Amino acid sequence: MTALSEYTTLRLGGPARTFRVAGTTDELVAAVAGADAAGEPVLVLGGGSNLVVSDAGFPGTVVLVDSKGVSFEEAGTDDAGEPVVLLRAEAGVEWDPLVERVVAEGLSGLEFLSGIPGRVGSTPIQNVGAYGQDVSQTIREVLVHDRRTGERRRMTNAECGFSYRDSVFKGDDRHVVCEVVFALRRSKLSRPVAYAEVARTLGAEAGARVPLEQARETVLGLRRGKGMVLDPADPDTRSAGSFFTNPVVTAEEFAAVRERAAARLGADVQVPGHPDARGDVKLSAAWLIDRAGFTKGYGDGPARISGKHSLALTNPGGATTEDLLELAREVRAGVEEAFGVRLVNEPVMVGVSL
Q1: Which residues pair with residue 142 across a beta bridge?
Q2: Which residues are the active-site ones (predicted)?
Q3: Catalytic residue at 346?
Q4: Where are the domains positioned within the chain?
Q5: Class of the CATH domain delimited by 2-65
Q6: Which of 237, 238, 234, 201 has its CA nearest to residue 219?
Q7: Architecture of domain 235-350
Q8: What is each CA distance from 318 to 12, 40, 51, 269, 335, in whole angstroms?
Q9: From CA 353, how far away is CA 16, in angstroms rounded?
Q10: 306 in catalytic set
């Protein structure tokens, strides 16, 4: 049997009872439909960068998506009068090489998503994002196989129900992502810089547009410094990226967090929070984790917090999935006790839960 640890960036996960590789969209649909007809549980696997798989493995059919089709289509201009190009990418296309190609082609819209591991098919599921940019800003439509009806259909951006690190696809395996269509601008300049850390590193004002290559290299540098770019020679990058999402709380809840932080850390402590249009506040999970006492490198067991970033839980070597989950539960409980905020995992759990 195939060990799923060979296909996850955490290098964790037991065996798959049945393992299939789908090199085309037709093969992907056929493999999933065949398993469904046989009453088999199905796990659709991409880059394995956002999965935590049980040590017991998966008691059904795992389908590795390896479709590689990419095409570009001119599509007129946008409201600002800039040329629009539609990028069609099949679900098995590796994400960062695609971003690199898009930047080289002079197309803006994905540049701040550089360095993220995984494949195209997972991006709409999680509404993948980083540094002020997420895929929902550029996704035009998603081609899916509907397991309930057996049909393929195209879902518009609105039908995808995107929100922060979420979509209608997350937590519901009805739809198998086959292809994603992105609407990009033909421009040598990035989308406006929306993240303070990126702006500081670039020496630019928030809202500025910078050369695409400069935006990409800046983000890659920031991610490498946090251990968020996979490096086989660096066990500290053996993670699922950010393990917890940044909590979004009400204004009243934010006030309570500030009170707890002041009592714990001193009256002059500044709790980072970013208000949104609805009046809610997005907190920094990394800040909460660190201030709750779980500093970079924390962990006496085989699973540890990354030495480069408090949000990444790593398997330096020899850990099991249960080791990782024990650490995650400890961190979650510690943050909740310290600040009254319950963290939510970002990776998809397969056969396990927190």
Answers
A1: 155, 180
A2: 165, 242 (proton donor), 346
A3: yes
A4: 2-65, 70-225, 235-350
A5: alpha beta
A6: 201
A7: Alpha-Beta Complex (3.90)
A8: 9, 31, 18, 38, 26
A9: 18
A10: no
Tell me whether domains 2-65 and 235-350 share a fold.
no
Sequence-ordered alpha helix ranges (H) in 180-235 = 196-202, 212-225
Give the tokens for residue 11: 């290098």
Q: Which residue shows structure tokens 């996960």?
A: 13
Going by C-beta distance under 8 Å and a sequence separation of 6 or more, which residues neighbour residue 266? none
Tokens 């539960």 correspond to: 329
- Give the number of residues written for the chain: 354
Among candidate residues 11, 20, 165, 223, the one labeled active-site is 165
Please give the DSSP secondary-structure letter assigned to residue 241: S
The arithmetic mean of pLDDT across residues 89-104, rounded, is: 99
User: Which member of 108, 122, 190, 242 is catalytic?
Assistant: 242
Level-2 CATH architecture, domain 70-225: 2-Layer Sandwich (3.30)
Taking all residues of the chain, what is their mean pLDDT, rounded to a whole number?
Answer: 97
Classify burial at 79, counting beta carbons within 10 Å of its beta carbon; exposed 0-12, middle 13-18, buried 19 or more. Answer: exposed
Predicted pLDDT at 80? 86
Token code pair at residue 275: 């208000």
Question: Distance of alpha carbon 186 from its chain centroid, rounded?
Answer: 25
Cα separation values, 65 from 23, 200, 211, 345, Å: 7, 38, 33, 24
Residue 277 confidence (pLDDT) above 90 = no
In angstroms and rounded to an integer, the radius of gyration of the C-alpha atoms of the chain is 21
d(CA 216, CA 106): 12
The residue type found at 35 is: A
**Which parts of the chain fold into alpha helices (H)?**
25-37, 95-104, 123-126, 196-202, 212-225, 251-265, 285-291, 321-339
If we measure between CA atoms, which residue out of 181, 193, 80 comes closest to residue 133? 193
Write out the two tokens for 141. 């439509």
Residue 171 pLDDT level (bands cut at 50, 70, 90): confident
Span between the terminal Cα atoms of the chain, in Å: 27
Strand partners, 83: 77
* pLDDT bracket for residue 79 (50, 70, 90): confident
Specify the pTM. Answer: 0.92
DSSP state of 111: G
